[in-house]
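Predict structure. Chain length: 320.
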Amino acid sequence: MNPITSQEAKGFGKVGVLFGGRSAERDVSIMSGSGVLAALQSQGIDAHAFDPGQRSLAELAAEKFDRVFIALHGRYGEDGTLQGALELLGIPYTGSGVMASAIAMDKITTKILWLKEGIPTPAYAVLHADTDLSAAAAQLGLPLIVKPPHEGSSIGFSKVEAVADFQAAYDKCAPLDDSVLAESFVQGREFTVAVLGTGAAARALPVVEIVAPQGDYDYQNKYFTDTTQYFCPPQLDDAIQAEMRDLAVQAYRAVGCEGWGRVDVLLRAQDNRPFLLEVNTSPGMTSHSLVPMAARAEGLSYEQLCVEILRGARLKNAKG
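Prediction complete.
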């Protein structure tokens, strides 16, 4: 990557770093955005914090940002709603556009699209208040995973090992979403693959393996403990890593993502077959986050990564 020059830094104009927001992932977003803000400022970029959870769209327009870096996670920031507002306001922004953001935020729609494209993802069932949970458990087998399809950071996530525990797992998710997603449990190793770029230029960064205590990569172990281990590159056959990277780019393109993202992958122990879980269009950028880790393995510093993502900021609906 070309180093940033003072001329380029000035050319970015006034940059807004959007973080905080109103989602259940607000605290994580504040950590991500604070890091991005400091990184951009360290490169001589005129970057400013803006919290859409505390300030209005009218105030956003009044700031007259030349472009914005979206470091929001979850609803109202990663789901296409803010992207639509930025299109209307004419403010170029980082990451995916309205449609790709909305699809990726909905894990059910993402799975439907991936299955149609032949991209492997665990079998699933959509649950509602009147769903026969015993029948769903019989269909998917035990253990199974239960989670809200529109949340991230493992919020609402449960592993169900007995039918008797299924209702409690559903009840944990129901307040968070209109529907609940149940997935077949894939026994194996957990990985993530970051992707940078758009269209034919999209490329996968090195694979990161996640080894959490007792295999429980929950909210606490993601962001607030130092007991989770990460390996980049992992101890894994090069051909399998290449397969995961290729699948991640296919999955990213299938959803229509651009700029940057991260695809989560499980590698089934019995046959080393990868299964894709979801694509994140505004991944974490905290000290524990995985995209910066993968970037470092490719020789990109945190600051360089932030600048590269910012370089891709644009309006997606400008043509026509």
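Summary: The CA atoms of residues 57 and 144 lie 41 Å apart.
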